[in-house]
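Comment thread on ticket #2218

A.B. wrote:
> Attaching the input chain for the structure job we discussed in standup.
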Amino acid sequence: MEPPATDESGEQDLLRRAAAGDGRCFATLFTRYRSRLRRMVKLRLDPRVQGRVDPSDVVQEAYLETCRQLPAYVRDARLPFFLWLRLVTGQQLALTHRRHLGVQARAAGREVSLQRGALPGASSAALAAQLLGNMTSPSMAAAKAELKVRVQDALNRMDGVDREVLTLRHFEHLTNAETATALGLSETAASNRYVRALERLRGVLARTPGGPGGF
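C.D. wrote:
> Ran it. Output below, let me know if you need it in another format.
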């Protein structure tokens, strides 16, 4: 699933007006991507704080921070706009983890190195839950429990970059070009890693009766 296309010329005009102080323009821009940012936060929110932190609150904090940083971004835009929003949102999520977990935040899970720092990685439990979310009938309960363990094990055994490419492409719905830019890879390398990660998970699913199809 690819994200919806955007009008780049219209987006650049809104960015210029927002950087000049038009808050309504920035609100319009941010709203376009709010649901994608919330999806990212939900995937990467540490399970130990899920009962205390709502992903929407993290996204709102990111909105305020991106408003503050916008003029500097417009002067030197080294990332596409959405990837910059995503980066700042991920940084706010990391700050949230540190506020709630203190020194334990570094043990919250894998951190993913990006071009400008590291962001919290998605947990294998969150990814497995996303993948198996449609297996809800009582007759599938046992198969789902077994499959979840297998999927989490396969994810945990993956190379860290392969796992992150899979997360970005399949679960956050970034394009291959966006994924490559976010991770500092060539598009060919990002594509190859995605195929490799998909094949590994497909093998796990194929060996489990009742597993979800269409992956």
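A.B. wrote:
> Thanks. Noting for the ticket: Residues 23-44 form the longest helix (22 residues).
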